[in-house]
Amino acid sequence: MPFTANRDYKEAPRVVASAAGMYYRDQDGREILDGTAGLWCVPLGHSHPTIVKAVQEAIATLDYAPAFQMGHPAAFELAEQLIDYSGNKFGQVFYTNSGSESVDTAMKMVLAYHRARGEAQRTRFISRERGYHGVGFGGMSLGGLPANRKQFANLLGGVDYLPHTYNLEKNAYSRGIPEYGTHLAEELDRIVALHDVSTIAAVIVEPLSGSAGVILPPKGYLKRLRELCDKHGILLIFDEVITGFGRMATPFASDFFDVTPDLMTTAKGLTNGVVPMGAVFSKAMIYETLLDSPAGIEFFHGYTYSGHPLACAAGLASLKVFKEEKVLEHAQSMTTYWEDALHSLKGLPHVIDLRNVGLIGAIELASIPGKVGARAMAVYKQAFAEGVLIRTTGDIIALSPPLVLEKKHIDDLFGKLADILKKTV
Ligand code: PMP
Predict the structure, then answer these.
(1) Same domain (yes/no): 68, 38
(2) How far does the centroid of ligand 1 lie from the alpha carbon of residue 61, in Å?
(3) Where residue 285 sits, what CATH number does that domain have?
(4) Residue 239 near ligand 1, beta carbon < 6 Å
(5) 230 and 91 in one domain?
């Protein structure tokens, strides 16, 4: 099983057998409140009838279409609608099948772009400590989570890391975006000077680090990164695989922070998790540069399943639901209640920080000495037993429910977690 301590599964694995709305059900029909929207990928709730119907119709109409040298109507329609959903800040999308593929695709796109401009020497990437950019060799090389890298040699060279912005001393219990740490963006200047700007292809960051345990960017940090990238003529990539599609009650995190990157990697909520799909959004100048390249450079890249008809149908239906059901407005209307409920856990045993933005929450627990992660895992197991699905990274509990949740779900989630924390040793 992926990212799992498989040795824990000598006995029967934990399973869910069906899902609807805010709930999973196990094989015995027991309801489990989904506090994580699957793996951050089900913003609209499970088995949404509009999406189910669209995918059923799609499979009966066109099961598969090659993506090379041809396409199909839904692929182009979805691309148009995605650009529209992005507020027309981007010019094109390139389809992939996952977040990892989106990241590797964006990296290759950046390299092709620079080569097309006659700057093939721009090959270095700058990412951030504690970043997570998927599991391909490209994304893994950019990533900064030790457990994800240390077993695997031969990472890509030419990557430097900005410092992370995690700081419990200064930022604990911030409500929303923390104050301290904006100056950490200035480290970009130091890294650029070290290698000479003419060698640098792009900076890539998650607007907020999700997999590292919800590390929020300090106020003004992303704006400053954008300014420094502009100053140096370096492309900026936001990895919006978890923050895209409404997680912050805006279409993308880039809208929330009012900072537009040159490329944006997405996946997950794009199809509401129903069919695997990712997309790289790129500014029109990247596409145009590649088309106009005097050397005739093409972006020679793609996947058998790029723009799969079922994924496109799920994507179109998801965008329809976002619009028709005013999902972002609903998410926005829940954020204060969410924040208050999360912060009501302050003072409970082991809790050392609470972080939130949009419909994202993190509960950081003090670790048992020498057993990092054990305490949060105990809470995870107990929560599952009591009918709530949460997620853990080390001793940080990450929460990211479907955006369609109501106050009663928030009460249930935090009520159960509070009871469990009171009994946790
Ligand atoms: N980038 C980020 C920021 C992610 O959070 C993830 C997955 N959680 C990925 C990339 C990889 O996505 P996938 O698992 O679909 O390959």
Answers:
(1) no
(2) 30
(3) 3.40.640.10
(4) yes
(5) yes
**pLDDT of res. 164:** 98
Which one of 4, 132, 141 would you pick to mutate in the ligand 1 pocket, going by the greatest count of ligand atoms within 8 A of its CB?
132
Q: Residue with the nearest Cα to atom 12 of ligand 1?
A: 99
Evaluate if pTM is beyond 0.95.
yes
Residue 41 in any domain: the answer is: yes
Residue 207 in contact with ligand 1 by CB distance below 6 A = no
CB of 98 shorter than 6 A to ligand 1: yes
**Is the confidence metric ipTM above 0.95 for this complex?**
yes
What is the total count of domains within the chain? 2
Per-residue pLDDT reduced to its tens digit, 172-228 = 999 999 999 999 999 999 999 999 999 999 999 999 999 999 999 999 999 999 999
**Kind and range of the H or E run holding 353:** strand 351-357
For ligand 1, atom 4, the nearest C-alpha belongs to 241
Distance in Å, CA 262 to ligand 1 centroid:
19
Helix (H) or strand (E) holding 357: strand 351-357
1 in any annotated domain:
no
pLDDT above 80: residue 371:
yes
Q: What is the pLDDT of residue 297?
A: 64
417 vs 357: CA distance, rounded Å: 19
Q: Would the CA dihedral through 127, 128, 133, 137 be positive or negative?
A: positive
Q: How far is ligand 1, taken at its centre, from the CA of residue 42, in Å?
A: 14
